[in-house]
Amino acid sequence: MVCESWKTKLDAYLDGELPSEEMRAFDVHVHNCPSCSADALTRVQMKRTIQFAGKRFTPGAEFRRRIQQSIAAKPQRRRFGFAWMMATSVIAILAAVGLTATYNERQRMRTERVSSEVADLHVATLASSSPVDVISTDRHTVKPWFQGKIPFSFNLPELQGTDFTLLGGRVAYVGQSSGAHLIYQIRKHEISVFILPAAGSDSVFGADSKVERRQTFNVEDWTQGGLRYVVFGDSSADDIQKLSALLKAAVEQK
User: Exposure winner among 113, 140, 173, 177, fewest CB in 10 A?
Assistant: First the structure.
C-alpha cells in the first residue's frame, strides 16, 4: 500500500525520534492522509493507556499510614528510648517526603492524562471530515455561536495583519469540563485553542506554562480572566507563542 512506508515509522514519529526533516514531512503527510491520521490517533491512545496502567499501583498515603502504625505498635525496651525517638523522627520525615512525592506524582499523572486527552481531541478533530461545527473566519460569528452551549463567554483577537486564520469552532469536553475548541491555521498548520472554566481545569493543568514540547506538539497554557487557555499544535514554538499573545491581549481588552 502507498502508506506502508509511512506507517513503519509512525511510532518513531509519535515519540519524536525522527530527524527534524522527516518530522516535518510526517506532519504534512498525517494532516493530509485520513488513514494515517486515524492510525496515529489509535496509537496515541494505546500509548497513553499503557503508560497510565503502569502507574496505577503507586503506594498511596493510606498504605504508608498502615506501615507507620504497624511499626509504632511494636513494644521497645526503655534503653532504646533515644534511638526510637530518632527513628520515629526519621520515619516522620520520610513519610512527609513520601506523601509529598505521592501528591506530586498524582498531580503529574492528572496533568499527563488531560494533556493526552487534549492531544487526542486535536488529532481526532483534524482527522474528522467535519472538524468544526461553526465554520467562519469571522470572530464575530464564531463567538456568538457558543452562547448557550458553554457556561461562560470569551473574547477572540482580531487577526487582520497577522498570518493566522480562524477556521471555526466546536464544543469540547476536557477533564470533565465543557468549553470552546477553536481551530486556527497558519500556513499549512492547524492549531487548537481550548478555552475552559479555570475552576474545573486549574487543578489538573497545574501552574501556567510557557511554550513547551510535549510528544510531537508545542503547547502553552495559562489562566486569565477566570478561564483556562490551552494552545496546542504541531506548528513552531514561535507560532504558538504569537497566537497565545494575541489571545492574552484580547482578554485584556474584554
Answer: 140
